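Q: Here's a chain of 292 amino acids. Please give me its 3D structure as tokens.
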Amino acid sequence: MNVIVLFAVARALQLAQSGQCAEALPLLKGAAGQPPALRRDFNIAGVRCAMSLNRPADALGFAASLQREFPNDPEILYLLTHIYSDLSMRASQELLSKAPGSYQVHQLNAEALEAQGRWEDAAKEYESIVAANPTVPGIRFRIGRLLLSRDSPTADQLAKARTEFEAELKVNAQHAGAEFVLGELDRREDKFQDAITHFSHAVQFDAGNPDAHLGLGRSYMGAGRYREAIPSLEQAAKLQPDNPETHFQLAVAYGREGRKADAAREEKAHQETMARAQQRKDAISRGVRNGP
């Protein structure tokens, strides 16, 4: 790195550290040509300067570079948590300021109530949106999900939730989430053919969802159609290899089809993923107890 480049690097970081962000930001955008350690420093300074200047697009650009290049760095992950939270807060305040009577404001309020566990209040907000804007996608799904959030939903609540998911599909025929939940409700009631139909739609609309592939495989299993279950379960295992349940179901399906070696391999994978899951749980518990 020659003297001129070194001076430019030092100048960019000095301006940022002294709060002269308007002058620093154009220089910090040259991070791509720097060595990794300097790219890290440039992008961190760039995020902070962009946020101080209220330039969210620039902040997101720097944040994306940090996330891409340093995905396992605790300091970066901590910084990104605060950046995204701050950007979310700013956007919500702008929404409240510019469109206070919009259904999006009611939806934002409902989501906040839902996050606080105030499900009845959240449901009322969502229902007010539906009353005024019956074709807004996603709202019926949220109402149905709230009904299922109870510790022990009653039969009436389950029936109402089903109605909401079905209503969601009338507004958005390709809502993978509604298809998935309807499939799960049918599977639990041993309505395996109906479950297969819903899960088939769910994987069609969201092919990257391992739970939908698992649900489809389990529904085929419930219907005694083990050979047909295997491709769905294999796809679920490919998408989410650390899920013990998928390996267990695959072991059973292979066994029913007489594929003993495959069944033994999946049973071993089931035991190994169970052990790893317990290790992660224990590690998190230790971290919480012992602190930083």
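Q: Can you summarize the key feature?
A: Confidence is low (pLDDT under 50) at residues 1-6.
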